[in-house]
Amino acid sequence: MRPFRNRVAGVRESLRRCAHLAPTRCALPVLVLAIVTFVDVAGGIWLPLLAAGPALAAATNGPRGVLSTGLLAAALGATLGHEHGVPTSELAAVLSALLAVTASSSLASALRGRRERVLAAVRSVAEAAQHALLQPVPQTVGPFQVAVRYSAAAAEARIGGDLYALVPTPHGVRLIVGDVRGKGLPAVGTAALVLGVFREAAYDEPDLLDVVGRIERSLARNLGPDDFVTAVVAGCSRSGNLEVVNCGHAPPLLISASGDVTAVESAQPAPPLGLRALTGQAPRLQYLPFTVGDQLLLYTDGVTEARDHAREFYPLAAGVARHASDDPALTLGALHDELLEHVGGRLHDDAALLLLRKQTADSQVPALPRSEVAF
Prior knowledge:
single chain, alpha+beta, 6-stranded antiparallel sheet, elongated
């Protein structure tokens, strides 16, 4: 019993002397070393398993942390080998293996750190692009309250092909929510094109159909034959009515002041933007009454096509009926949380939600001066 206690005391002393070599971030690798050490002391020679310490440190620490863990493992190996009376040749082989694993793990840690720095730079650029592309929407515009929630499926990039914008104009508030076919940088470029044309045309064109027409002509010149954009363009005219043009997009949801939820289906569906020349069908303008307390929800298919583990789609209309309130931000926050819970925490497609609520009867919407409108 006394030799066992002596070995434990020796290991504790080695851990005390070497612990300062491992910083706080090495907690998990050091814990692994401690487990291997005490198993070794209690039941036999397990010295080769000490290499798990620096190998694990490569995934959680920088090169300095890996070296510290490797030196700690080597010190423990030397101490345990001496206590067990391991032959010098065998102990040298074990320590050499520990040093080799430490060196290779340090290199792997340095490469991982470099990749992380590159990814951080990419994220920073993507965030800047997203802020420039999807400009913040004001919470209040004239008689309207507005809220937006956007989630990109590509968490590393934090930007996707969904688009939205709201522009106060001399012709009333105008907004767009759309979804670009495809992913990656080409989709982002197309989204930027659509938003740029929309922001300019929304301010210039008195007729909402002319706004859509300018977007269509621009896409026809710039997109490939298989590319298109589904979108809903809406406007709140000074007469108080709601104007909606749906171009192959999911139907908006109209939420009455009493809480009834109705899908705004198109009587004559129009093709997505960029495909009018192939079908010859022109979009139609829908007029809807929009009184105080009414709300309009625009969204992308990343919301309605989100599936749970049983492959069931997210029931957006039912969710809106459950969470509708007088505060659009609270409503979208509850919907977004429920959506993430439905899919198990991570979306597989970009998702955008824009909710507009009429809070007063005043239909006079201040338009931004021309110099303040971002194109």
